[in-house]
Amino acid sequence: MEKNKQVIIDSLPEGKLVEGNYRLVESSLPQASSGEVLVKTISFAITAGTRAGLQGSASYAGAPKAGIVMNSTGIGEVVESAEESFPVGSKVLTQTGWQDYSLQKIESLTLMRDDVDPELYLGPLGINGLTAYFGLLEVGDPKSKDTVMVSAAAGSVGHMVGQIAKIKGCHVIGVCGNDDKCNILIEELGFDTALNYKDANFRQNLKDATPNGLDVYFDNTGGMILGSALFRMNTGGRIACCGVVSQYDTSSPEPGPRGIPGLLINNRIKMEGFLVFDFAEKYDHATSEILEWIESGDLKILTDKVEGLEAAPRAFVDLLAGGNIGTRIVRLS
Ligand SMILES: NC(=O)c1ccc[n+]([C@@H]2O[C@H](COP(=O)([O-])OP(=O)(O)OC[C@H]3O[C@@H](n4cnc5c(N)ncnc54)[C@H](OP(=O)(O)O)[C@@H]3O)[C@@H](O)[C@H]2O)c1
To answer: Domain ranges in the chain?
Structure first.
């Protein structure tokens, strides 16, 4: 009889996440009852924000817990169903978690369009694409010719933020953790400048790259990069606080940067946090526009694929160390 392979959170990380925080188990296949379907996972995304969930710093994720299947958004196929709206064979987006099969309530399923590459739902048409879209356009509020900077710029959210800012006519600076990523941002994605934050001269390089200051900073990282950006913000600038990836993979996050609130007051800077779910009513409009940009070639999508459920823990540890380019997707066999 077929078994369900699952990756369980064996223990919560103390300090940095390690592969040993996870354990592979096999259990019996669950059976769908009324209002539920059984979904076979095709692939799932590994995203930085789930590390905040393991740390207890993501309010929407609740308290972190060991002994449960690791959570993730995934795509899958309905393999058992008595529900007319989701018959066997339907391709769906849902919270699959790191496992071969999951039972899902039908209200937690989104039917995917069959004329669109399903893996786009794990990046640009899913949570990370919507985060880039709303965080930049509604919170950062860029105007044509503004200088926009984004951190974790070669990651899933970041590489889309920079390109959307280019679509809006902005001058775009990406900040990331190595020179190869910098080259990709400029040569493949059309960023104007890219800076390596691990370079010993990062602060001076940032100063040199921003002779006209920064109008918008899309902050995926917090920490030293936020601290540096604050001192380059123009009067009336906007900082969209999206995430704090520099502080997730530790049990002792740093305090916030210098200059708050003094710099915010003197330069009338707006610093605003957001959660993508705040914009749920506008998702349909955003996904149509994102799809148009992909089809026109204005938005290029980078994905980084890993094969097999067993590879997921290593792929997550490696992502937190900067090993990914674009959206990291684990494909199940
Ligand atoms: N507000 C919301 O609703 C919302 C929704 C989704 C995601 N998010 C946030 O968006 C951010 C990006 O998530 P993602 O899924 O797209 O991840 P990602 O950018 O694809 O991956 C994380 C990247 O963070 C960088 N990084 C790791 N440690 C760092 C450090 N100490 N300092 C600077 N950069 C570091 C690494 O790239 P380098 O090589 O550049 O170091 C790594 O590739 C996260 O903060 C996440 O929490 C927010």
So the answer is: 3-123+302-331, 127-277
